[in-house]
Amino acid sequence: MNRFCERCERVTNDGNLWCERVDCPAEEGFPVLVYGEYLGDLKVLKLLRVWRTAALYEAQRGKETVLLKVAHKGDDCEERLKREAIALDSLADKPFGPVAFIRSFVPTPRPMLPAPLPPYPVPSKRPYGEISFRGETKFYSVFQHAQGKFLSDLMLENPQIWHYQAAWIITAVADSLRPLVAQNKSHLCLSPDMILVDTDSEGHLRPLLLDLGFIVGDNEIESIYNWAKLCEPAYTAPELLNAKRPKSVNTSADVFSLGAILFEMLAGKAAFESKLQRDDQIREIVTQHRGSLPVERPELEHAGVVKIVEQAIAPSGRYRNVTELANALAAVYSRPPAEKRPVPRRLYVLIVIFGIVLLAVLGIGAYILIQVLLRQ
């Protein structure tokens, strides 16, 4: 296993990290799997992202390419992965019988959340896997493979994403969080590294939220161990950063996170810079900031978008939840355009078979009719 520094993105294969910056938390890097290592029947192909509680890989199971999420060592990280796996499994659409057969012939909508796969090659009651790897117990989840670029990488290539696309990305991510909003629960860990963006056939950006976060309600946050170390302070609501163990949370905290991401796409810079800074430095900047952050785009000011962003990342008076934020953006930009999904190949095969059978029936019928007429 290699060691990866989440902050400066250094990787080493000897288990030790070193950085010339005095305040770099490199020695606290996370152990990560490398190409060719096996986790059960899953062969690691590529490290995609390292988050504070888990690492995401591209892996191979037999001939199928999948996404593999492995929790870092620690009760808090493992518990989060279990909670997420159970939630995604409960949200997954699992048609069976005639319904599944009929759906296999119609275009399927693009998923907004990871589509879970069985953790083992044999049926299991648990939606997550547990396996021993080099003397340590590893908890993991397996998902269907997805194409695209991480939003953080996309913003490096294009610091100011077209504001229509930016608004539609936020709206789509907010829609993916509706199941949490309906239960009055929060994600609490949204960031551009959590969002995978693909481009459809018409050039529209389609986001996939790769992580469901902590999935906690108002008073459940106290059960999370070492909160200050697990959150992404640059995208975390200031009321959650004032204490190491906040006692309560409401759904407006996720509004701040999406607002910070939207600001970054529109302004071309992060609301609160996080690279190569200690968490306590970022926390101080976020909690002490009380003014509005400038989005110097006249066309957005006239459309009222700047006010939406300001309300989303305000210390108080934010939208109650991400659904309200999405509705505010939809009032300006309308909803994201509907995607034209490809028709399954088996539908074309079915049409061809049906055509052949129909022609055969018509041919046989015509032959019988001719024979009858000839006999008369």
Report on this structure.
The protein has 13 helices and 13 strands. With 376 residues, the chain is an alpha+beta fold. It folds into 3 domains: 33-146, Phosphorylase Kinase, domain 1; 147-342, Transferase(Phosphotransferase), domain 1, CATH 1.10.510.10; 344-376. The strands form 3 sheets. Strands 4, 5, 6, 7, 8, 9 and 10 form a 7-stranded antiparallel beta sheet that branches.
Low-confidence stretches: none
**Straight-line N-to-C gap:** 87 Å
Report the helical percentage.
Answer: 25-40%
* Beta-strand share of residues: 15-25%
- CATH topology of the largest domain, by name, is Transferase(Phosphotransferase), domain 1
The rough form would be described as globular
Number of strands: 13
Q: What is the fold's blueprint, element by element?
A:
Layout: E1 2-4, E2 11-12, E3 30-32, E4 38-39, E5 42-50, E6 54-61, E7 64-71, H1 75-91, H2 97-103, E8 116-117, E9 129-133, E10 136-144, E11 149-150, H3 151-157, H4 163-176, H5 178-182, E12 195-199, E13 205-209, H6 227-230, H7 238-241, H8 252-267, H9 279-288, H10 298-303, H11 305-312, H12 322-333, H13 345-375
Antiparallel strand pairs: 1-2, 1-3, 4-5, 5-6, 6-7, 7-10, 8-10, 9-10, 11-12, 12-13
Helix pairs in contact: 4-8, 4-12, 8-11
